[in-house]
Specification:
alpha/beta, Aspartate Aminotransferase, domain 1, Aspartate Aminotransferase, domain 2, 2 domains, 5-stranded mixed sheet, 13 strands
């Protein structure tokens, strides 16, 4: 029998089959209420709009869609993304400062490859997005955890950690941050802290990687100005995605940065994928051009606000008093805290056996913390939210 283990590279050994995935795999004939990923509300997907776009496409458009394209993206889409970001105070030259990516996950991978070396000090939230953690780990950095509270990343602790590094003759290279409705806790960084982050980046000479998949899903007024919209020195790289505001299946994301940075990332992307899917890029550009994106965001935000309220009401009546949470002002997730001696990893197995799945909080920390759970309200139906929360409530008591 083949001894598979001896063939894996050091990097390959970082991708063993996940025990968590095996628990969450669909079971034949078993209905599972999934409070897991950040999937889209199915009835809200712009299916009719995309169908119309393809039906109206000209032969020239079809040729462009089905041929190789530029590594940085389809020019029409780059232009639309530049216009869209300008509406949120981010200026980006479409030809030099925007790269279309396969979702924002590819942007995270590009930043990992181009900017992180073994042993680099990488600043990030505790908790933070689990797939960013996983991606960064492949470069063997040293994580410097910064606590997150209801107002986002604690910049006082951030400065303390930076001072400590400096006293040791060390420095941070990069800060990864999700300022607006961050994954997993949906916290919203205050404007005061946003300014502080930029000031600290200048003072201690590190770059910032701002991830903004959820900022457009705001339940209380417009999205706050991103760090990239306040950046004066080209230190901020900014990524966002179609996945939360329009469609995850189209796999459209983008990253914007200064031309020096994008030049290196384009070459790295060329090694990974050569170019993005032309079909999705064309449809995305048309959705922007026709105004469908601007209509879609408030439409789906209204749906998610209602689902959030239904989940909160169900939790109030079903969850035990030991469970604590904040009301999200946007985004797709509820972050639930339990006493320190409580493990949600143990609850998950019972929950799945009873037809409900969630993501345990341990996955969102560089050093696992077990007394949290993340609940998603965007995908399940309103009825399933109530049923699933009632089931979890029984198991948690």
């Amino acid at each position: 029998m083949l001894d598979s283990k001896r063939f894996y590279s050091k990097l390959g050994n970082m991708y063993p089959p996940s025990a968590m995935n095996s628990i969450l795999l669909p079971k034949p004939g078993v209905k599972m209420i999934r409070f897991t990923g950040g999937s889209y509300d199915v009835p809200s997907l712009p299916s009719a709009e995309v169908k119309t776009i393809y039906e109206e496409a000209t032969p020239q458009a079809w040729a462009e869609m089905l041929q190789y394209g530029g590594t940085a993206g389809m020019p029409a889409l780059q232009k639309e993304l530049s216009t869209f970001m300008a509406g949120h105070k981010i200026k980006a030259d479409p030809a030099k400062e925007i790269i279309v990516t396969t979702g924002s996950q590819e942007a995270i991978d590009l930043v990992s490859r181009v900017f992180i070396d073994k042993g680099d000090n990488i600043l990030l939230g505790a908790p933070t997005y689990l797939q960013a953690l996983s991606c960064f780990r492949t470069q063997y950095p040293k994580f410097v955890d910064i606590p997150i509270d209801a107002d986002g990343m604690n910049t006082q602790v951030l400065e303390e950690k930076l001072k400590k590094l400096k006293a040791q003759g060390k420095s941070a290279k990069l800060l990864y941050v999700i300022p607006s409705f961050q994954n997993p806790d949906s916290s919203l960084m205050t404007m005061e802290r946003r300014k502080a982050v930029l000031e600290l980046a200048e003072k201690y000479d590190f770059i910032i990687f701002e991830d903004n998949p959820y900022g457009y899903i705001s339940f209380e007024g417009p999205m706050p100005t991103p760090l990239a919209g306040m950046d004066k020195s080209g230190r901020v790289m900014y990524t966002s995605t179609f996945s939360k505001m329009v469609s995850p299946g189209m796999r459209i994301g983008w990253i914007t940065a200064n031309p020096e940075f994008t030049g290196h990332m384009i070459e790295a992307k060329n090694n990974i994928s050569i170019c993005n899917d032309g079909l999705s890029q064309y449809a995305a550009a048309e959705l922007f051009r026709r105004g469908d994106v601007e209509r879609q965001i408030p439409k789906v935000t209204k749906v998610y606000r209602k689902k959030r309220d239904i989940m909160l009401e169900a939790m109030e009546t079903s969850f035990p008093k030991k469970a604590k949470w904040e009301t999200p002002k946007g985004g797709l997730f509820l972050w639930v805290k339990f006493p320190k001696n409580f493990s949600t990893d143990e609850v998950l197995k019972d929950a799945v056996a009873n037809g409900v799945a969630f993501v345990p909080g341990s996955l969102f920390f560089s050093k696992p913390v077990h007394n949290y759970m993340r609940l998603n309200y965007s995908l399940p139906s309103e009825a399933d939210i109530v049923t699933g929360i009632q089931t979890l409530g029984r198991l948690l008591k």
